[in-house]
Design brief:
The chain is α/β, with parallel strands linked by helices and 353 residues long. The protein has two domains: 134 residues, Up-down Bundle (Four Helix Bundle (Hemerythrin (Met), subunit A)); 197 residues, Translation initiation factor eif-2b, domain 2 (Rossmann fold, 3-Layer(aba) Sandwich). Helices cover 38% and strands 17% of the residues. It has eleven helices and 16 strands. A seven-stranded mixed beta sheet has the order 6-5-4-7-10-15-16. The protein has a four-stranded mixed beta sheet with strand order 11-8-9-14, with helices on one face. It has a three-stranded antiparallel beta sheet with strand order 1-2-3, covered by helices on one side. Helix 1 packs antiparallel against helix 2. The longest helix is centred in the middle third of the chain and has 31 residues. It is globular, with a radius of gyration of 20 Å. Bound molecules: 5-S-methyl-1-O-phosphono-5-thio-D-ribulose (MRU). 5-S-methyl-1-O-phosphono-5-thio-D-ribulose (MRU) binds next to helix 2 and strand 9. Keywords: Amino-acid biosynthesis, Isomerase, Methionine biosynthesis.
């Protein structure tokens, strides 16, 4: 086992006591130039924060939603069985924010199980239990990342050159990160030579967030545009690609940030291993294949504008699927907190649970 570097970056934190306090979210839209913390007082605030990308990344979205559920129920009085519609309304509000990352629905399901157990309890007890659940999801995610980071790092002898995409770091999780967690663990064990950070058009999670995390922790990283990946692979300067995911289907198909599928195809052509690092909370055994995963379609202005400046003419058609699906047969291995699994994923994924 390698010693983890303690990342001091977190996407959210709590301020005050549970009865009157608030959730603080680091506004990821303002990074890397400004570190602004927004105060969330209600489920509506949290839902807006997720929808508008104040917080993003599959595990972080799930954690935020669990806190949103607790904040939402805090506003009421009396036992839940007297007003079950309120719980459903808040759950649906949070569930409607973003469709692709399964962690959102997984976390809300955990909250629903808590509520079911305490449907006759007074509201203070229910709210307290929901806050405990949110804290537990937050803490577990960080611990799981540390574990999967070590499993991932053990796959390499070093010195290794990794290419990654989007942001899968402390900002996208309970801390530390999934794919970036593996990279952190490689760095800690002195097996990391270098990281190529794909900028991740159109939302630039790689350029704005992963690059920021790497610089903050002294990880040797080079930012490239997405279209440069093939070039550096051809030059023999990429030993492996490691990414995160928003949902893995039962057959091992991987939904992740748009551009992931293209990288997997490039890896196949250049004979480079393609790894997906994820907590078990992102594996959805109830979804048979990637064809069944809803792909979020986002606002066209995220494609036509960069930093508020218009880059495309009025009137042009624009497509903006935020995610794509990489077929399981392009995935070399899936790295989790319970170990590393290889194809055929239909057989190996269920053994992790
Ligand atoms: C550990 S994060 C894994 C994924 O959530 C990440 O790769 C990703 O695609 C995030 O997309 P985003 O649209 O920024 O929420």
């Amino acid at each position: 086992m390698t010693d983890a570097i303690a990342s001091n970056v977190v996407p959210l934190s709590w301020e005050g006591d549970r009865a009157t306090g608030r959730l603080l979210m680091l506004d990821q839209r303002q990074l890397p130039t400004e570190e602004v913390w927004l105060k969330m007082h209600s489920a509506e605030d949290v839902a807006r924060g997720i929808r508008e990308m104040v917080i993003r990344g599959a595990p972080a979205i799930g954690i935020a939603a669990a806190f949103g559920m607790a904040l939402g129920m805090r506003a009421f009085e009396g036992p839940l069985h007297e007003r079950p519609a309120e719980f459903s309304r808040i759950r649906e509000l949070l569930a409607s924010t973003r469709p692709t990352a399964v962690n959102l629905f997984w976390a809300l399901e955990r909250c629903a199980r808590v509520a079911e157990r305490l449907r006759d309890a007074d509201n203070a007890s229910l709210t307290d239990a929901l806050f405990n659940e949110a804290d537990q999801i937050f803490q577990d995610d960080r611990d799981n990342n540390l574990r999967l980071g070590n499993y991932g790092a053990a796959l390499f002898e070093g010195p290794t050159r990794i290419l990654t995409h989007c942001n899968t770091g402390a900002l996208a999780t309970g801390g530390y990160g999934t794919a970036l967690g593996v990279i952190r663990a490689l760095h800690a064990s002195q097996k990391l030579e270098h990281v190529w950070v794909g900028e991740t058009r159109p939302y630039l999670q790689g350029a704005r967030l992963t690059a920021w995390e790497c610089v903050k922790e002294g990880i040797d990283a080079t930012l490239i545009t997405d279209s440069m990946a093939a070039h550096f692979m051809k030059l023999g300067q990429v030993d492996a690609v490691i990414l995160g995911t928003d949902r893995i289907a039962r057959n091992g198909d991987v939904a992740n940030k748009i551009g992931t599928y293209g990288l997997a195809v490039l890896c196949k052509h250049h004979n480079i291993p393609f790894y997906v690092a994820t907590p078990l909370s992102t594996i959805d055994l109830n979804t048979a294949s990637g064809d069944d995963i809803e792909i979020e379609q986002r606002d066209p202005t995220e494609v036509t504008h960069i930093g508020g400046r218009q880059m495309a003419p009025e009137g042009v058609g624009v497509a903006h699927p935020a995610f794509d699906v990489t077929p399981a047969d392009l995935v070399t291995a899936i790295i989790t907190e319970a170990g590393v699994v290889y194809p055929p994923y239909t057989d190996t994924l269920p053994t992790l649970f």
